[in-house]
Amino acid sequence: MVQARTAFSMCTGAGTAEMARSLIQKYFNEQGYDMNIKTVAMWEWNERCHSIIASNLSWCEQVTGHREAPHLFSDIESLNPQSCYRGDFKSLSYSEKRDRILGSEMHCLQKCERCCDDLCPVPAADFGVSGLPCQDMSRAGARAMREGRTNTVYLTHAKYNRINRTPVMVIECTPDLDMGMVEDCHGPEYDFYQTMMQPQDCGHAGVSRQRTYVIGVHNQRSVVLHDPWCLQDVLKTKLCDRVTWPSDYLVATPTEIQLEAEAKARARKVVYQPHSTDLTYLLSTRELMALDQYEQEYFNRIGVPATLDEDLIVFLGDNPGYSLTWSLNGKIPCYRVNAKSGLHWSPRFQRFLTSKEKLATLGWPVTPEICTSMRAPIIPTLDVKRASDLAGNGMRLSNVGTAQILALTCFGLASSTAGSCSMDLDFQ
Ligand SMILES: [Zn+2]
C-alpha cells in the first residue's frame, strides 16, 4: 500500500493521522522508498477543529515538502440523502438504520470548508484512517454498542468504503469496539485485522490509553503481503525499550504554567496570584476534598507523603471514593470525556498538567527536545486555548503512526503489488 497515492479521514479531529503519516512518509522517503500519499478528503463536524486542521496541514507540508490541499467536509452524514432520516428515524433499530443508509444513494457533492466553490466533489481514496466515535463503545458509558446513537456514523463510513471500494482503511476506537457491527456493515468484501495498542508499545510507558486499530482490507482490491500482528510484535520490541515516567511529561515552562493559571483563574472567577507557584488556590472545594482523599490513600499505601512523589499525577475530575484515577502504576491516567474540565494534578509540584503537557503525553512534538528526536518541526503557536483544543481532539501520534505503518506495509494494491514486499526487512 505504499503505492497508495490518496487518503481520506473521517472524524478527523486535529488531523493527527495525517501528521503521523507525514512523518512516516518523510522517514520512508529517506530510506529510498517512493511514498507520496496525498490527503484528498477530511470530514470533521467540530468547527473548532477546522483552523487546527489547517495549521496542522501546514505542519505536514513542512515535514514532507509536498503541498496538502484536501477537501474539508463537515458532516459525514450529509453523504446520505435526507430521505434516510424520514419519520421517527432515531427510534429505529441498528438493522433498520443499516438498511436505510446502505440502501440509499451517496451524495457525490458536499459543502467544503476549504475551497472557494460552494460544493466540492467527494473523492474516493486508496487509504483511510478514521477515529470513529467511542461513546457507545466505552466501558465508562452505557455500552449501547451497535444500537447506540453513533451507529449512523459507522454506517456512513461503511457506505463510503463500500461504494468507493476503498482498498485499505484503519478504524481507531476504544478496545470495546463492536467488531460484529463493523464486519456486518462493511459486508463480505472486507476482511478485518484487529490490533490493540497502548502508548507503552511506542516507548511512552508513562501514559495509559489503550486503543484498538482495526485494519479493513477490501479482498478484491488488496492483497496481503505480511502478517500485521507479526510486524506489530517486531515494532513493539524495537520501540518499547525507550521507557518514560510520568514526570518526563512535565515539560511546561514557568511562563506557560502561569499563563494557564491565569486563564484558569479567569474561567473560575478566582483572583489570579501571579507570584504563587502553588496553584492550590485555584482548586474548588470538591477538588480539594478529592486531593485530600488521594493523598491520604497514598500515605496509607506507601507510607510516605504523596507530596514527595514527582511521578504522582491524580485526576481531580473523579471522585476518588469511587475510583482512584492516578499514576500509582507509573502511568498518567488517560483523558476521558470530562478530562477537559477535570484537572490532572501533581501533589509534588502543586499544579495541574498544562495542555502542552497533555499533548506531550499524546506524543506530539511540543518541545525542542521531542522535535529533535522526532526530526520534526515544532507544533506552531501553542496558546492556551489552542493547545487545550488540540489535547481534547488529538489521537496518540505514535500509535496512529504505527497502525498506519502496519496497514501500508502489510497490504498492497491488488493490481500492482510490486515494490513493498521487502519493507519489513527494515524493522528486523
Ligand atoms: Zn473542497
Whole-number average pLDDT? 87
Provide the CATH topology of the largest domain. Answer: Rossmann fold
Strand order in space, largest sheet: 3-2-1-6-7-9-8
Count every beta strand, where a strand is a DSSP E run of 2 or more residues: 14
The CATH architecture category of the largest domain equals 3-Layer(aba) Sandwich
CATH class call of the largest domain: Alpha Beta
Low-confidence blocks of residues: 416-428
User: What hetero molecules are in the model?
Assistant: zinc ion
| H and E order | EHEHEHEEEHEHEEEHHHEEEHHHHE
Main β sheet profile: 7 strands, mixed
As an assembly, this protein is single chain
Helical proportion? 25-40%
Globular, elongated, flat, extended or rod-shaped: what is the shape? Answer: globular
Radius of gyration: 22 Å
Total domains:
2
End-to-end Cα distance, whole Å, is: 19 Å
Keywords: Methyltransferase, Transferase
InterPro entries: C5_MeTfrase (IPR001525), SAM-dependent_MTases_sf (IPR029063)
Pfam families: DNA_methylase
Structure write-up:
The chain is α/β, with parallel strands linked by helices and 428 residues long. Helix content is 34%, strand content 14%. It contains 12 helices and 14 strands. The strands form 4 sheets. Strands 3-2-1-6-7-9-8 form a 7-stranded mixed sheet, covered by helices on one side. Strand 4 and strand 5 (119-121) form a beta hairpin. Helix 6 packs antiparallel against helix 12. The structure holds zinc ion. Zinc ion (ZN) binds at residues 71, 112, 114-115, 120.
